Amino acid sequence: MLLLLAEYLQDFYKGFAVFQYITLRAILAVLTALVLSLWLGPWMINKLRELQIGQSVRTDGPQSHLSKSGTPTMGGALILSAITISTLLWADLTNRYVLITLAVTLLFGAIGWVDDYRKVIEKSSRGLPSRWKYFWQSVFGLAAAFVLFYTSNNAAETSLILPFLKDFSLPLGIGFIVLTYLVIVGTSNAVNLTDGLDGLAILPTVLVAGALGIFAYVSGHISFAQYLFMPYIPGSGELVVFCAAMVGAGLGFLWFNTYPAQVFMGDVGSLALGAALGTIAVIVRQEIVLFIMGGVFVMETLSVMIQVASFKLRGKRVFRMAPIHHHFELKGWPEPRVIVRFWIITVILVLVGLSTLKLR
Asked: Cα–Cα distance between 130 and 181 in angstroms, integer?
């Protein structure tokens, strides 16, 4: 929106041409989303309290969590508001990648909103039935996959790229739709499963979003892409602004979500943020790197899958409780220790993912 205004004002003063630089707009997007989150956060938390929109806590979980019952939830609406406003202000709204990513984020956020709403009204931890949640995730995930596939302009946009290998590029054809669906829906649910402790999900999301922003910048810049043996995806560089908005909104939310949390993001935030990460990774052709950098999300998801499979096949549990962050809590780890150690793991994995830019 402001980019269009700057383009118009260029006719009167050439200095407005500086807003054509993606890096400047990314910085402004971070700051805008951060300020919006910090400014609107107290008002939203108070409003959630007034409406008695509080978290329902599972009685079979760690006993320390019982004191969290009633803490305002659906704070993910704050994150999505900051991301949306910042993106609309600073991104190129004619860019299809920005529009697709924003649409996926908001649609998955809508699924989470319905889920959270039902939890709050029914005072239950169940919310939207799983079959309906997965149905709508599948509808929106497949819709994004089809749009990306049928609007692609070259083979690089639908080919599988392997990290650490500079000459490997496997055209996926229609398989691109399947992979895109799995990445978007899988990442959405993985972040959702991780969101169980104060600040546990949001900082890894911020770190991964920031790293994906770097990949987006490289893949959208023909010289950098060629130099680093990355696929050149015209227009993907604009996603840097969206990633920056995610970083700013996430850090602003962490201000209120850090232990002990004043507000929880709820499914409205976790489902949307996970879907956004998956969509960006698909666009910049870094699905496997996302798998590496989001290792904490993967670990949380695998722990649930292993727990369920083991109980159904053997009648025994592998972990004291799944997702795995609860396992460590029940082993006696204080909640802040679990959170910070998972953050440290994410920092390491993000650095490993970023190393694939050069190690090819």
From this structure: 17
